[in-house]
Sequence to fold (262 residues):
Amino acid sequence: MKGLLLIVLGLVLLRVPAPAAHAEARPEPESICNEFWMGLSSIFIGRVISVTLLPPHPKGPGWAARPGHLKPQTLVRFEVEKSYRKYETKQVEVETLGGGDKRPLAFEVGVRYLVFAEWYPIRGPSGQRLLVYPYSRTKLVTQAQKDIDFLESVFKLNPAEDVLNFRDEPVRHIGILQGRPISLPKPPYPNAARAAHASGSVPVLILLDESGRVIKAKSLCGDPLLTEAAEATAWQARFSPIKVSGREVKVSTIVVYNFVSH
Fold:
């Protein structure tokens, strides 16, 4: 169905800001829980086949500006040994970024890594490219056992059955909703969280009935001072009905609430 992507564990659906303050000084890696549930484009274990150093100012439409004033540094080709997303190919090429005081991640041929990358739209035949940011969670496999253990424990979960404990009927997990939110309230910034300067993203898994009402909600990650507010707010969300093959159905999906401290 056009405009509808069905995957086992979805992409980020919606980001809802909480009332609060200025941007963070610099990006930091998300927790492994957030990286997984908030739909990072590509997570895989792979062995480096080749590393190609890029010129300082590569030419062509495919080398337009990258996010955050970062510049392409190297192209790294991997043999994928295991993917934690359903659509990985056996070989994949990623682009490392750097610039200013942000040094690109260094990769060595023949070495195995746990890679966290994001698709980015570019001009050209492919239309997109996988990027590895300087602050990526990517690391040597030998240093990534805790992350791998977490990924192994969650990537085969059925969100509705295993997380929300809903087993009345099969439920599709939707990464990109066909329907639009009718009501998506912003969460309050809890006093205890404000006093502790707690901040961060809280992904909440929700189950929608055939009318688009939330009938189950559970926070997946985040600071404990923020999860209760995010989960309570998710219960108030309302979406237009979701249809699959012309029929209104129950679906699960994820709403992300962002809290930024002063």
